[in-house]
Design brief:
Number of strands: 17
Radius of gyration: 20 Å
CATH architecture of the largest domain: 3-Layer(aba) Sandwich
Order of helices and strands: EEHEEEEHEEHEEEHEEEHEEHEH
Structural class: alpha+beta
CATH topology of the largest domain: Rossmann fold
């Protein structure tokens, strides 16, 4: 029995979820804060516009399983909220790409009339701390965790919350320290999200790959074309969940296609025509000092 049909909406991208079962559920997710942190802007809609579901969930099944069939994810059994969050992020990112929206794992600032992206790339070594330091110097926040661009590389939306403050069941991670504690060590006290924001569409003028590491001397290197595209590709596929183990013995199914991968690589090639720099520094202050020299 179809118990619930609901759509998640981000920009012009829509994702439909059908839940089947006897129990009553008002919404698939109790809280959208994780989705908004990871994808910049997501709302739910009871209006069904998609011809068929992207995710089908059979709640009453006794065995927990997940599979990808005919361009849709099929879930069976009990799935925790955190697990569902990760699944929906991956499928929503795919639908976003299909309509020309590209979520980057990055932060971005509007500073001195330029838009600067701090790209996570293959590693994650300072995009948030760089954003905080820039904001403390008067830069406006374009994004904190995710920057979404269109096909032309123009920013259309971005996450505005600096820290993810809670993790739902199914996403617990004892190996990831509280980022607020790290920020307080760098900045000498608590860091809140009271930063001014920049909500207009803008071109990205400069891409920085931050590497905050006190074991090395400060280094500023203009990146070559291949490494620019390589790091950009890593930033984009961060959302597809192919590295995710959702639950014991249940990895995220492969939802990507060769067609989408080549299309994404083509976007990376076009986007990476802009200047990119690797900046290695001991702390966020030194890193932003070097960014200011590039402006």
């Amino acid at each position: 029995m179809l118990q619930l049909s609901e759509e998640f909406v981000s920009g012009t991208a829509r994702l439909r979820i059908d839940a089947h079962g006897a129990s009553t559920t008002q919404h698939v997710l109790d809280d959208l804060s994780f989705l908004n942190y990871r994808l910049a802007s997501v709302v739910t809609s009871a209006e069904i516009t998609c011809a068929k579901p992207d995710i089908v969930w059979y709640l009453e099944s006794t065995k927990k399983s997940i599979r990808y069939v005919d361009n849709a994810l099929v879930l069976e059994g009990e799935w925790y909220q955190g697990e569902l969050q990760k699944i929906i992020v991956s499928m929503m990112a795919l639908r976003m790409e299909e309509v020309g929206l590209h979520p980057f794992h990055s932060s971005a600032l509007r500073y001195r009339d330029r838009t600067i992206m701090f790209m996570s790339g293959e590693a994650n070594h300072g995009k948030t701390m760089s954003q905080i330091e820039g904001s403390r110097r008067g830069a406006l926040v374009v994004s904190t965790e995710t920057t979404v661009t269109d096909e032309n590389g123009l920013v259309v939306m971005g996450t505005k919350t600096t820290f993810l403050r809670k993790r739902a069941k199914g996403t617990e991670r004892s190996d990831i320290p509280d980022a607020r504690q790290g920020a307080s060590k760098f900045f000498g006290g608590a860091v809140e999200d009271a930063f001014l924001t920049y909500d207009k569409s803008s071109n990205i003028d400069l891409v920085i790959l931050p590497a905050i590491d006190g074991n090395f001397d400060t280094q500023v290197v203009e990146m070559l074309q291949f490494e620019k595209e390589y790091q950009t590709y890593h930033s984009l596929i961060n959302y597809h969940g192919l590295h995710q183990l959702l639950a014991p013995e249940l990895p995220m199914p492969i939802i990507d296609t060769d067609e989408m991968r080549f299309k994404r690589a083509g976007f990376c090639h076009r986007f990476a025509q802009k200047p990119y720099y690797l900046i290695r520094a001991a702390n966020p202050k030194q890193l932003i000092d070097e960014v200011e020299k590039l402006l």
